[in-house]
Amino acid sequence: VRKHGQHMKLFKNKGKDTTTLRRQRVEVSVELRKAKKDEQILKRRNISIHVKEENPSLGQDRADEIIQPSLEEIVEAVNGNDTQLQLLATQATRKILSRHKDPPISQIIELGIIPRMVEFLGCADNAALQFEAAWALTNIASGTSEHTRAVVEGGAIPAFISLLSSPHMHICEQSVWALGNIAGDGPLYRDALIARDVIRPLLALVSPATPVGFLRNITWTLSNLCRNKNPCPPLDAVQKILPVLIILLQHEDKDVISDSCWAVSYLTDGCNDRIQIVVDTGILPRLVELMDSPDLIVMTPALRAVGNVVTGTDQQTQEAIDAGVLTVLPRLLRHTKPVIQKEAAWALSNIAAGPCQQIQQIITCGLLPPLVEVLDKGDFKAQKEAVWVVANFTTGGTVDQVVELVRSGVLKPLLNLLLAKDSKTILIILDTISNLFKAAEKVGETEKLCLLVEELDGLEKIEELQHHENDMVYRAALNIIEKYFSGEENLDLEPQTGEDGLYDFSVKKQDFNF
Amino acid sequence: MELSDANLQTLTEYLKKTLDPDPAIRRPGYSLTAEKFLESVEGSQNYPLLLLTLLEKSQENVIKVCASVTFKNYIKRNWRIVEDEPNKICESDRIAIKANIVPLMLSSPEQIQKQLSDAISIIGREDFPQKWPDLLTEMVNRFQSGDFHVINGVLRTAHSLFKRYRHEFKSNELWTEIKLVLDAFALPLTNLFKATIELCSTHANDASALKVLFSSLILIAKLFYSLNFQDLPEFFEDNMETWMTNFHSLLTLDNKLLQTDDEEEAGLLELLKSQICDNAALYAQKYDEEFQPYLPRFVTAIWNLLVTTGQEVKYDLLVSNAIQFLASVCERPHYKHLFEDQNTLTSICEKVIVPNMEFRAADEEAFEDNSEEYIRRDLEGSDIDTRRRAACDLVRGLCKFFEGPVTGIFSGYVNSMLQEYAKNPSVNWKHKDAAIYLVTSLASKAQTQKHGITQANELVNLTEFFVNHIQPDLKSATVNEFPVLKADGIKYIMIFRNQVPKEQLLVSIPLLINHLQAESIVVHTYAAHALERLFTMRGTNNATLITAAEMAPFVEVLLTNLFKALTLPGSSENEYIMKAIMRSFSLLQESIIPYIPSVITQLTQKLLAVSKNPSKPHFNHYMFESICLSIRITCKANPEAVGSFEEALFLVFTEILQNDVQEFIPYVFQVMSLLLEMHKNEIPSSYMALFPHLLQPVLWERTGNIPPLVRLLQAYLERGASTIASAAADKIPGLLGVFQKLIASKANDHQGFYLLNSIIEHMPPESVDQYRKQIFILLFQRLQNSKTTKFIKSFLVFINLYCVRYGALALQEIFDSIQPKMFGMVLEKIIIPEIQKVSGQVEKKICAVGITKILTECPPMMDTEYTKLWIPLLQALIGLFELPEDDTIPDEEHFIDIEDTPGYQTAFSQLAFAGKKEHDPVGQMVNNPRIHLAQSLHKLSTACPGRVLSMLSTSLNAEALQYLQGYLQAASVSLL
């Protein structure tokens, strides 16, 4: 996802400053689509009953034995002094909040029992109550921002953080979960947690002995502490978390690896200084290796993370290239999942925005054939990114490199995409065609390119675009036609006898005409 | 203006007057006319509200309509608030308009509704959504009215508000608006869609109700397209089942009541289905992942639709949309299986492709009565929306995966169609037309105007088909029989000219020449075009494939038939024929000389005739090119002949100049330049008489005249400088005035330098002595005020040319006489740093020789403060010699940088065959400028031994020194 303004920059500064060609992942505040299925979840509700199975001694459900109390009864019991009733009411609340469909979170909040629940978190002598309260609060915090706020404003942050040191592992784990939900709400609560020093006790929970299920929860919460921008997480927090993430990336559990990758992808999603911190850990080769993982849940965030790195400086991009990203990308460009194709093409577009040495590596590593395939028959989202690859390539590449690109057969699918139902894509293609003509001029192949474009039915498409409703598209098309296709007849008029010098007048004029 | 009856009355009267046919009353004029009055009051408060009142309440319908149109135009002109300009509509009027316009629009009759709907979308473009938050709710609420007149009004307005989503760039602002629209509109629209479809089945027997309902469905389908264009909205993804299922069933729906009798105009049913095809194509292209489950159903429905749709013109858009949908899907690898089956392929070929390739009555009509349009569509490929073209695209799409089977299926069809034709040609000729079209579309994989087909299907034997089925038609003695088949045959030669062997082309040439006589415009035009194309083909060594020798037997008949074709009805200004004439001249060269007297007479007559009203720019251009060729070819063999051309042409030229035929004047100047350059001796007096007129400022005001006029003046200077100096000395300031005018313009300064260079080179020095200082001052002024690269390049060439002509000392003296130390400043600030920018062989040479002179023939360079510039200047000169040539643009490239010379191409059409020989003013003096530098340095070092060597050894950089040693070696000289 990119910002409109950045596109404009590309056109205005074309060829002047290659760093502006790199397109960072900028969250657009407006989205028409369904939330993406491939993104990591921000907040999770604990609806499973696996907790109970793993911890048979605690949090046991005996729904069949207990008659569900009414909401009034819950309020009364929670506010009362009978610890047994408190436990039952809290448990009942937790169950309501854990039901599969449409938990009545707002209704529960309106009962005003959150502050009491937070108090229960502190009842070190009643582990069962602590656990049920933690679970219930976790599920409240899993809702909308408003829901999370209710939990935070109830004073839950310090309470949960101190529970990280609870002797009971399942309470610890539930607290980790709750904190993950709070952190996932956005930069404000994330930083509030960090300011309360959540990181130290959280990291202390990671050890070779930590059960894998627990470790998954910790990793997920850590990833939420790395997540979100405006602002991005404080530098010292990142520096504390990173070494642990590096270790977690070596774990054998794919969920742990996946969430660690997501965390790294968030850390690299920002300015170049942040990217540098990650690059400095030397983790790039491992990330590139994970990009090639057979598991989609690992491949997706690893690709995302590496993709972010190549939005950085030429040097950072070079590190990713040295780590082997270009040898993995061909497979990803041919992946059956459109979203992987798209992300891979996006990453490639940013590498293509680099200096010509990097463009040369794109050629050498055999990226052109899969690129042409994506352009030709990829999913539309991937095709759009592939168009950016070509656009950047033709902007920064040398004439020889551009010639190589044309030889690889890029022109036909590129011209076909002039029929795309997307004005921006069309405009970028037209711009790319202009770049190709500029390269052709340098090697005296303008006429050949004209014929090629016409042969591939590009000319008629460009001509059609002179009627496009979008002003910029129409002008770009007109410009190409006027510049390269309107005088075609004169090329024919070369005199056969030659000695009269039929082109003299024009040549002389052209030399002066700047 | 108050909202009073009196004001309403006044307004009514003035509105009535705007309808008056008498322009004196209607338009602003001497008295206060109606339109002027309305203009004068439109700034008043309440004016728009008065108009709204009138369009609602006036007793007369014509006033209502007139008020609604006036209102819309008023909104169009005034609603937008432009920054830094006054707000033209007062805020309370704006609020009142927005509060009333929707209900008013909805309650108005259709004619007025349309105007108001337009007005709403203009307002919406500015105010929606922020400044018009209730608009959507207000519209959506009307969906429940059940009144489809009202609903259609809302839908139409929504369509005009939302259709921009189809072409605007993605932006946060745009998407915020779309999101808002989706939140308010998507669900009600979906419900309306479902309800309307239900109503269609309950009213299945009520024709008038159905018409209204189908109009709604069309608008709904269009809104769907707009709302889904930017991205797939969550709502529509969740409701895809509803929409696609209904779209699918609408595609298969037919109802006799909705069928129209009209053959031409598409009916509601066709429009709806056509839009549904677009919607499906949108989803297939952009949201393939989500749409995949529905796609096969649509493929089946759409080809069934095609099979059952008739040949009438009214179905054209639907059919071509539907075919294009199939064409785009069948190319996608993961849908290949939908088409793979032999039966499917056969049925698509048989029932979809073949029927849509047939030559229809409408085509026949165009062929006969509207041949220009027919040719444009058929020849120049502006047939994008036609059925034939869509069918052709489908063939090409299918061939991507199934070339063998498709070729096999069609070969059968081609054969049977040819057999049908053979049985009874005069009845069945259309079968052969379809067969040829089918072969053409099957065989052509890639095509350009210049080369015809460039990639062909190898499974089709093109030559065999040519010999067996094309040539026989063209050999037939009667050129006017079966004109469509003749045109098909000629076109076949034209497009497959690179596939058919040369000997077959040679056999065809007399046949083509013969068909220049055909009465049918299409046929003789195609024949001319085919000949023209064949004559441009290249063989080995880039020579023409068909040689003048091979054409020798046909020269006379070719020329005769070409010129006769120009007399055929409808072809008097046929650009294809004129182009063929030009191309024939160019190919035949001296073999046309015997025919020139007759040719030039015919061309002159034509010129005279078309100059009355020049309307065909291409025709005119090729006509002038042909004239130039006649002159060139003839005068090359016989220079004396130039006089007879002048005799033949000057009368017409004079008339063109006198009548100020603007389109032709630049051409006339170019032809005159060519003629003048043909003269070997003194300039003829007839030209001298014209000279003063060429300096008329009015001529120089037109951009298109400048290049040819400069060229013409250059020819005058080349041939007649001494005559000008002696007989027209009083015109020299006028001549320099032209230079001054040109130099003042960034676009034309290079033309000014062309002129100046010719003046300096050819005019006797004494005749321009008194102006020289002035010239330099002008140049320096321009240099100071607006320095551009183009200007600097020209300037550098000029001062070096001056140096070559007048000597380095003269250059230094004149610079320093304008301002002390000027010479040093120009050397240091302009020549040394900028000389690398000079491009062009001749230009570089001039600069090299000029700089060599400064280095070696200018004493102040050796013994004043200028001496410190000596080494840097030498270094710059060596750089000019040795740095890589950056001027790599090949000679034959013609494009002009549009940004630098706005409107250049349209205003001035350069005649290629009036081309000027390149002129090298130092050519005789200096052959190799490097050797010349070495020799000059040698001479200098002889004059002051030791000086040059010591300067070189102390400060010239090593690389440059090495080059220099190379020059000295090559010149076999050494320095003392």
Tell me the layout of helices and strands:
The complex is a heterodimer of chains A (514) and B (976).
Chain A: H1 4-12, H2 50-54, H3 71-79, H4 83-98, H5 105-110, H6 114-121, H7 127-141, H8 145-153, H9 156-163, H10 169-184, H11 187-195, H12 199-204, H13 212-226, H14 235-248, H15 254-267, H16 272-280, H17 284-291, H18 296-309, H19 314-322, H20 325-333, H21 338-352, H22 356-364, H23 368-377, H24 380-396, H25 399-407, H26 411-416, H27 423-442, H28 446-455, H29 458-465, H30 471-485, H31 488-492, H32 504-512
Helix pairs in contact in A: 3-4, 4-7, 6-7, 6-9, 7-10, 9-10, 10-11, 10-13, 13-15, 14-15, 15-18, 17-18, 18-21, 20-21, 21-24, 23-24, 24-27, 25-27, 27-28, 27-30, 29-30
Chain B: H1 5-18, H2 23-26, H3 34-41, H4 47-57, H5 61-78, H6 91-107, H7 110-127, H8 135-142, H9 148-162, H10 172-202, H11 207-227, H12 234-238, H13 240-252, H14 268-286, H15 288-291, H16 295-308, H17 316-330, H18 337-340, H19 342-357, H20 361-369, H21 371-379, H22 387-423, H23 425-443, E1 444-448, E2 452-456, H24 462-475, H25 483-495, H26 502-515, H27 521-536, H28 548-551, H29 555-565, H30 575-588, H31 596-610, H32 617-637, H33 642-658, H34 665-678, H35 685-694, H36 697-700, H37 706-727, H38 732-743, H39 749-762, H40 765-768, H41 772-785, H42 789-806, H43 808-818, H44 822-834, H45 841-856, H46 860-863, H47 870-882, H48 904-907, H49 929-943, H50 947-955, H51 958-970
Antiparallel strand pairs in B: 1-2
Helix pairs in contact in B: 1-3, 1-4, 4-5, 4-6, 5-7, 6-7, 6-9, 7-9, 9-11, 10-11, 11-14, 13-14, 14-17, 16-17, 17-22, 19-22, 20-21, 22-23, 23-25, 24-25, 24-26, 25-27, 26-27, 27-30, 29-30, 30-32, 31-32, 31-33, 32-34, 33-34, 34-37, 35-37, 37-39, 38-39, 39-42, 42-43, 42-45, 44-47, 45-47, 45-49, ...
ARM repeats (chain A): 112-155, 155-183
GO molecular function, one term (chain A): nuclear import signal receptor activity
Protein name (chain A): IMA5 protein
